[in-house]
Structure formats: C-alpha cells, structure tokens
Automatic annotation (TrEMBL):
Residues 216-258 form the Aminoglycoside phosphotransferase domain. It comes from the Bacteria. SUPFAM superfamilies: Protein kinase-like (PK-like). The lineage of its organism: Bacteria, Candidatus Nealsoniibacteriota. It holds the Pfam family APH. This is Aminoglycoside phosphotransferase domain-containing protein. It comes from Candidatus Nealsonbacteria bacterium RIFCSPHIGHO2_01_FULL_38_55.
Length: 348
C-alpha cells in the first residue's frame, strides 16, 4: 500500500459509503437505512502515519430519522519496536475492559478493520477534560480529578495476559527512539536532551531496588494518560486512546498524567501553576492510594514524569519540524528541556 493510500481510502466518500452500507445495521440496532453521511478530518499526524476522522451518519429506523457519529483511527505501519499496531491495541483493550464490566469507562467499539489497521468506535458526546483548562475553569477541572483517579485505579487492578509487557527492555528501546527523533528534528538541542535521557537512566540505576520490587506489580496501564484523552460525560468520565496500553508499572500512568497536566497548567495558569499542580497531585493520590505516599512511590512517579517529559519533547521535535513556525517550535522545545533540567536539580 502506497504511503498515503490508507488515508485516501478512509476519506473517499464512495468507498466508505459502501463500507458503511454493509455495516450500519450491525453497528446500530434498529437502523434500517443509511440516508447520508459526511466526513470530517480530525487529525493527520506523525508524518502521515496516523489518521483520526469523524463520520456523521444520518440513519432511519422504526422511530424515524436519527444521527450517529463514528470515529476512525488508522495507521500506516505496525507499532514501534515491533509492537502490534496501536489501533489494534486500542480496539482489543476496549473490548477487554468491556468484558471486565468497565464499559462505562470507554467508548463503544464497533470494529477493527485489519486491511487498513483502522479502529472504528462510536463517538462520545461529551467535553474533553483538557477544554476545562483551556477555558480557565480551574475548579471544575479539579473537581474531576478524584473521578479520574478512581477510574484509573479500577483499570490498574486488572491483569491482561494478552497484552505486551512494557519492561526495561522496552524502555531502553523507547529512549533510543526518543534520541533518534531529537537528533533528526532538533539537533540544536540534542546534547541537552541526551543529558535528560541519561538522567532518567542514572536515576533508575541509583534507585534500582525500588524499581525491582515493582516488577511484581505489573498491571494494565493506559500508556498515554492525559486530559486530552479524558472525556466528561454526564458528570462521569470516559478514557480514550489505549494505543499505548501495556502491562506495566501502574505508577507510569500517574507520572504521565502529572507531567502533562503540569505543562498544561504552566501554559493556561502560568501565575500559579505550581500551586495548582501540587493541589492536583494531592487530590489524585488521595483518591488513588487512599493512603499517604511512600518514599518509593514519590521516587518512581518522579522517574515516570521525567521519562514522559522526554517522550513529549521527542514527539514535539518531530511535530515542530513539519511546520513553518520553526523558531516558535524551537522556543517551545528549549523551554521543555529547561523544565526537564530543573526537575533533575530537584530530584528525590
């Protein structure tokens, strides 16, 4: 399949029309006819490797005409480091969580279409948690932190033997990949970034006894937990995008969520973002652990915050390179690296 063919196919109204004609009754109980639909591109990213699009369907049934919206996520290649395609992991994890009676936490999966590595699911009618921060609704955002913590804790109670184990071997490969991206797309900051990666490795070696004991605690983890992947639906939440789900240390999700939220607060509430970040962490941990944080918890969460910051920087370098605002992108990357360097100075 040519480089962009999967995108062309999924955005081709004639092809996707035939695709849905054979499936709409299977997807939506009571639907009798597909009257019309339109296609909306949400995002094409990672150098045309991944697509997210929305299909707005008009259907008719016994009770008249009604509308449904389908989201598709597709990717050109299999996952990084020989992992399964992220879309397949996303689909299978959603199915697994529904089997575990946690269907209230995820969207309704419709189908995984292997030829295009495309995952179709019913769109969620809600508001992205990230939007509350963008709109400067700080208290509303904080009000949902206990709900998020409790939902994540339920998922972390599960083991899924069919999912890939994300241990030290995978972490080493990930770090090498992050270095590759920054060296290619942001060579100016490569040496500083390399120091961040080395700091991650050194910290883990220095505290190896804490991490060794965590190997027995591997559970199903989201892998990319941040407010952009959390939707508010009727005062509850749903979690999206399990593309990076794996059997891993549950605290990796906390580190991911904490660093993403800290960076978001730094942008949206610059004057008091540190105070807000501390409050967010306290709220989350109280509802997740139901106990005080141990010294090992703090060290491990710190490590995963720093490691996830390295991931954010590496992908931001690739994304920034594709746009004309190179100077603005470089300013952002320099800022992110400085945040990392500050975290190293204040490490546990």
């Amino acid at each position: 399949m040519a480089k962009k063919n999967y995108i062309i196919i999924l955005l081709d109204k004639k092809w996707i029309g035939k695709f849905f004609q054979n499936r709409f009754a299977q997807y939506f109980h009571g639907a009798k006819k597909l009257i019309d639909f339109d296609i909306e591109v949400i995002k094409i990213f990672l150098n045309h490797q991944r697509l997210i699009a929305r299909y707005n369907l008009i259907l008719s049934g016994r009770n008249g005409i009604f509308k449904k919206t389908i989201i598709v996520k597709a990717e050109k290649k299999i996952g990084f480091f020989g992992k399964p395609a992220g879309t397949k992991t996303d689909y299978s994890t959603n199915i697994f969580l529904r089997e575990q009676k946690l269907d209230n936490l995820v969207p309704r999966p419709l189908e995984y279409y292997q030829p295009l590595r495309a995952f179709f699911y019913e769109a969620i009618e809600g508001v992205c948690l990230r939007q509350l921060s963008i709109n400067r609704h700080s208290q509303e955002f904080m009000d949902f932190i206990p709900i998020v913590a409790e939902a994540v804790q339920k998922i972390h109670c599960l083991k899924n033997n069919k999912i890939i184990v994300n241990g030290q071997h995978w972490e080493n490969k990930q770090h090498k990949f992050y270095l590759f991206l920054v060296k290619k797309y942001y060579p100016f900051g490569f040496n500083h970034f390399k120091n961040l990666i080395q700091a991650c490795r050194d910290f883990k070696i220095k505290n190896k006894n804490y991490f060794r004991s965590r190997f027995q605690s591997l559970r199903l983890t989201h892998g990319d937990l941040h407010s952009g992947n959390i939707f508010i639906v009727n005062e509850n939440i749903k979690l999206l995008d399990f593309s990076d789900a794996s059997a891993s240390d549950p605290l990796s999700d906390l580190g991911c969520f904490f660093i993403h939220t800290e960076l978001m607060f730094e942008h949206d509430f610059h004057q008091n973002y540190k105070e807000m970040t501390d409050k967010m962490k306290l709220l989350f941990c109280r509802n997740y652990f139901n106990r005080d944080l141990s010294d090992s918890d703090k060290k491990i969460i710190y490590y995963y915050m720093l490691s996830n910051l390295c991931r954010i920087i590496s992908y931001a370098s690739m994304d920034g390179n594709k746009h004309k605002e190179t100077m603005e992108a470089n300013d952002l990357l320099e800022k992110l690296i400085k945040i990392g360097e500050e975290k190293i100075k204040t490490s546990y």
